[in-house]
Design a protein that fits this description.
- With 360 residues, the chain is an alpha+beta fold.
- 21% of the residues lie in helices and 35% in strands.
- It has nine helices and 20 strands.
- It has helices at 7-12, 32-41, 61-68, 116-125, 150-158, 202-211, 219-228, 262-269, 324-327; strands at 2-3, 16-20, 23-28, 44-47, 52-58, 80-87, 93-103, 106-111, 131-135, 140-146, 170-175, 178-183, 192-198, 215-217, 276-282, 293-296, 299-310, 315-322, 332-336, 341-346.
- Strands 11-12-13-10-4-14 form a six-stranded mixed sheet. Strands 15-18-17-16-19-20 form a six-stranded antiparallel beta barrel. Strands 6-7-8-5-9 form a five-stranded antiparallel sheet, with helices on one face.
- 44% of the residues are buried.
Length: 360
């Protein structure tokens, strides 16, 4: 398994470690419920060094990215980041990602760890002359700082007030003599930041953030937080067998543009998908799990992609791909977990919206 620059710190702190897409990462420190609550009420930090980090640069890098991904890089400003997708010819989702425009023709693309190698191969297969792709993952680290107190924690640890940094914008600071890129982004539904810095500086920054009041968190809380916020996970809600129409992600895509997969996506946008990603809730703590069958009167109508008890809400939630033609006018269906049928009702996503209160 690959080790992050903070792996030894996790071990020394007694975190429970697991294999996640070939990476040695903490699933929990003090417990999922405590870590989840820390992010909702204060500040939690996550080791996300497993995420891929690619630098694409060259005179026509913006045009290359705009034609290969759903992100219009040519319309981006320096210091801006945008969420989007890498699609195949049939509009299947190869990956979801974030593009950062550093300066002019230099971009950073942050991709999922499970699709890292596939993403690089896909990009290189379409790479024109004069443009380069560099994998900066091994030389850098990534730490997420999330929660309503994150501006205060960041300000203390980095000695910089970033409370006014706009959502999906980033800046580069000097931290301990080395550059640290800080973006107002995250995967929890809360105010938060993601920090990119040299790998050798990661452990010291991690300690500084804890000293400033942040609680270390693992993959378990990261998953419950993102699910409450209605955020998709690649390999669950997003796959090459799914497309942005079926996944309900068209709000991130401009179909007036041309990009790889756009023609197929325009056709799909004019039809009803055979299965549509559907948010649901289950009263109580018993949760559906990935792969459970969605049923009506014993007949399968779809499958669950993610499910969990939602600590903030006090009941269970999840997503399922459901055949809309089988639902009719009903707003309820069953989920077969192999032992019993759970009663699920269709609801709205995101399941949770952050509290509107003063930050800091």
């Amino acid at each position: 398994m690959k080790r992050t620059p903070i792996a030894q710190v996790h071990e020394e702190a007694g975190a429970r470690m697991v294999d996640f897409s070939g990476w040695y990462l903490p699933v929990q420190y003090s417990g999922i419920l405590a870590e989840h609550a820390a992010v909702r009420e204060g500040c939690g930090i996550f080791d996300t060094c497993h995420m891929g980090r690619l630098v694409i640069q060259g005179e026509k890098a913006a045009a290359f990215i705009s034609s290969t991904l759903t992100v219009d890089a040519q319309a981006m400003q320096d210091g801006q980041c945008r969420y989007g997708f890498m699609l195949n010819e049939n509009a299947g989702i190869i990956d979801d990602l974030i593009v950062y425009r550093r300066a002019g023709d230099r971009f950073m693309v942050v991709v999922n760890s499970a699709t890292h190698d596939k993403d690089i191969s896909h990009l290189k297969s379409r790479l024109p002359a004069g443009i380069t792709i560099e994998d900066i993952g091994p030389a850098t680290a990534k730490i997420d700082v999330q929660g309503p107190s994150s501006p205060h924690i960041i300000g203390h640890a980095l000695n910089k007030d970033l409370s006014e940094l706009r959502y999906f914008r980033f800046t580069t600071l000097d931290h301990d003599g080395q550059p640290a890129t800080v973006s107002r982004t995250g995967y929890t539904g809360e105010t938060g930041f993601e920090i990119y810095l040299p790998a050798e500086k990661a452990a010291s920054l991690w300690s500084d953030l804890i000293d400033a009041g942040a609680l270390p968190c693992g993959l378990g809380a990261r998953d419950t937080l993102r699910l409450e916020a209605g955020l998709p996970l690649y390999g669950h809600e997003l796959t090459e067998e799914a497309d942005p129409v079926a996944a309900g992600m068209m709000r991130y895509i401009d179909l007036s543009r041309d990009f790889l997969g756009a023609d197929a996506l325009r056709v799909k946008a004019g039809t009803v998908p055979s299965h549509k990603l559907t948010p649901f809730r289950i009263e109580g703590r018993q949760a559906a799990r990935h792969g459970n069958r969605a049923v009506i009167n014993g007949e399968e109508i779809g499958w669950v992609t993610s499910g969990s008890f939602a600590p903030t809400l006090g009941y269970s939630i999840g997503f399922a791909y459901i055949d809309p033609s089988r639902l009719g006018n009903t707003e309820t269906f069953g989920i077969d977990n192999g032992r019993k049928i759970l009663n699920a009702s269709i609801t709205q996503s995101p399941f949770y919206r952050k509290k509107r209160k003063a930050e800091g």
